[in-house]
Amino acid sequence: MHEHVTHPVPAEWAANAKIDADAYALKYRASVDDPDSFWLGEAQRIDWMRAPTKIKDTCFDTDNFRIKWFEDGTLNLAANCLDRHLATRGDDVAILWEPDHPDTPNRQLTYRELHEATCRFANLLKDKGVKRGDRVTIYLPMVPEAAVAMLACARIGAVHSIVFAGFSPDALAQRITDCESTIVLTSDEGLRGGKKVPLKANVDAACAKAKVDTVIMLRHTGADVPFVEGRDVDWAEAVAGMSAHCEPEEMNAEDPLFILYTSGSTGKPKGVLHTTGGYAVWASMTHEYTFDYRPGQIYWCAADIGWVTGHSYVVYGPLMNGATTLMFEGVPNYPDFSRFWQVVDKYEVEQFYAAPTALRALMREGDEWVKKTSRKSLKVLGSVGEPINPEAWDWYYDVVGDKRCPIVDTWWQTETGGHMITPLPGAHALKPGSASFPMFGVQPAVVDPADGHVLEGATEGALVILDSWPGQMRTVYGDHDRFIQTYFSQYPGKYFTGDGCRRDEDGYYWITGRIDDVINVSGHRMGTAEVESALVDHDAVAEAAVVGMPHDVKGQGIYAYVTTMEGVENTEELRKELIQWVRKEIGPIATPDVVQFAPGLPKTRSGKIMRRILRKIAENDTGNLGDTSTLADPSVVDDLLANSPHAK
Ligand code: ATP
Ligand code: MG
Q1: Whether 531 contacts 582, CB under 8 Å
Q2: Least confident of 92-106, 199-213, 259-273, 427-441
Q3: Which enzyme class (predicted)?
């Protein structure tokens, strides 16, 4: 078995970090012992219009349920991202935009330019009848105008609902209808990895199924697209006639800021609703501490604005902190597998934040693509979205970061608004694959999945959060019962994350995967992450997904889907070797019953493995695969079906 060593905090980090080990311990204690004082302090990072005097009023018991933060405070989030920086850093770059193809000219917007663009667009929204509280659907590619659109909504108190610009017309229509928005912002086309995405055509198709009055369209690729008179508006033309002055709306801390539908890994997407004040404090605080962010640094989160990571860590968190945030239109493997690292070198990026799925895909192609770039500007590397297997973690640390950059493996959810469990680069020794320790104000607990009692010490079970934090979602849009039902009924009085977790003897948290994915082999409960990591540890394996399958004797058996490294031949010998390998690494109990080689795994558009589909294939219950509308590439499923042992 490969040895995954613990990395102590480097000396220069311990000496210079915003939060070192002692500061973490002190602040963490303060945040849970006296939340009112702690959060009153952290609230000072916001420019309030009226300062809050009531800080925390929350209760998870269903008969007295409430989540209110800073409830008598008023603010405007766009003003916090823009206006207050004008005097001090108006000419600093707010958004650096790197296009899909490196030869296309890049763009940059200073805080002053972003402020002006936001005001003009806010006035356009008002001109089109959008009022405080109205929902605005945003279906835009990764271009600066997407941030402008978000900030313009926040400026006038409209609630944005971003739909990832890769979703189908049906998925888009479903989300437009669910939040009852009558206006959609889009572009002629999107561009990803050299391929055009017909965004306007998708919107037109969605409009046939949803009630939309206005479509504002940005000309991005310049494609010739149909234009519906009376409904469609040309973005640039319309904005040119608007005033560059727009007073920010005074919003209450608990007024809605945005709706975002979860990725859909587990079922029907939920319209997660976030409010203004608590979210602002949370996004700003976590961005600063997790990345040890200092003004002047070039910071890059490679997530799409269609996901919560793009909301909190491409746009709101960095802009509140006066950062230069890089927005990347493209993909990691276009024009070639060096693209990420070339962009890092081009702008001298100091913090880089990406998903394990992208890292595993790049790892599969070999180290040369990385090694031919410098990356010496990098200081912190981040991971988000899925458990990062120790093998991929080591590769990120050794090859990408040259053993120099701490990795922050950030566990959180659309529902949590920002980081919940993560190491801080100057405070925590790193264990590859562990999300480590809770953020300030976060009280995680591990409970027995069967009866919900809290387990102490080194243990494993379901991950819950005992008390509220400012960035918590407030409801499922239009369905408060579903909110209570989904998150607070399983273990009464506690927020249920849906994830499984292990806490080791040093108090480190390890996310083991979704609790629904836990496999029970002859009475032994096993997280999918553990078996997958063992497989990825093998040199021939790039990625693996593991699910349970019915088994006469053991109750459940283990079914593993394996994607091998570029150039590896998928032979019968290798299959047997992998089965023995897992047996040796974890123990006989974890011996896979089936190993199926898979050229690709079914993933959501945010890059997460959809195990529920794999489970159906493993169970040979393929009549109804459930909601597959958020699947990135449905053809992957056909291949899996054709090559499953059941098909033979
Ligand atoms: P849905 O809720 O619709 O099924 P989703 O859970 O994939 O979709 P997100 O809110 O984007 O939607 O993802 C949150 C989930 O991602 C977490 O609950 C966890 O399972 C996983 N996750 C995120 N970050 C990490 C991490 N650092 N380590 C382990 N798992 C993570
Ligand atoms: Mg989820």
Answers
A1: yes
A2: 259-273
A3: ligase
Element (H, E) at 149: helix 144-156
CB 387 within 8 A of CB 511: yes
Whose tokens are 């387990």? That residue is 455
Using CA positions, which residue lies closest to atom 17 of ligand 1? 413
Start-end of H helices in 261-420: 277-290, 308-310, 317-320, 339-347, 356-364, 368-371, 390-395
Contacts of 326 (CB under 8 A, 6+ apart): 95, 96, 97, 98, 298, 299, 300, 301, 343, 347, 349
Q: How many domains does the chain have?
A: 2
- Of 232, 252, 272, which residue constitutes the final position of a domain? 252
Position 283 scores a pLDDT of 99
Q: Are 439 and 286 in contact (CB under 8 A)?
A: yes
Cα–Cα distance between 383 and 435 in angstroms, integer? 9
For every residue of 19-73, DSSP letters joined together read S-HHHHHHHHHHHHH-HHHHHHHHGGGS--SB--S--EEEE-SGGG-EEEESTT-
Q: What is the pTM of this model?
A: 0.94
Is 413 marked as a binding-site residue? Answer: yes
**CA 117–ligand 1 middle distance (angstroms):** 33
Q: Which atom of ligand 1 is nearest to the CA of 266?
A: 4
Q: Three-state DSSP class for 80?
A: helix
pLDDT for 104-153, tens place per residue? Answer: 999 999 999 999 999 999 999 999 999 999 999 999 999 999 999 999 99
3-class DSSP state of 309: helix
Is the residue at 160 inside a domain?
yes
Span from the CA of 412 to the centroid of ligand 1 (angstroms): 7
CATH of the domain at 130: 3.40.50.980
Q: Which residue has the tokens 């933060």?
A: 69
Q: What interhelical angle do 199-207 and 169-178 show, nearest 10?
A: 50
Pocket-testing residue among 511, 517, 533, 605, ligand 1, by greatest number of atoms within 8 A of Cβ: 511
* CATH number, domain with residue 568: 3.30.300.30
Q: What's the chain's average pLDDT?
A: 95
DSSP annotation of 3: -
Domain that holds residue 548: 522-643
Q: What is the DSSP string of 160-229?
A: EEE--TTS-HHHHHHHHHHTT--EEEEES-EEETTEEE-HHHHHHHHHTTS--SEEEEE-SS-------T
Instruction: Kindly list the distances between the CA atom of residue 458 and the CA atoms of 28, 501, 502, 509, in Å, as whole numbers in the listed order.
Output: 20, 11, 7, 10
ipTM value, please give it: 0.99
Atom of ligand 1 nearest to the CA of 307: 11
Q: How far apart are the first and last CA of the chain?
A: 34
Our answer on whether the CB atom of 413 is closer than 6 Å to any ligand 1 atom is yes
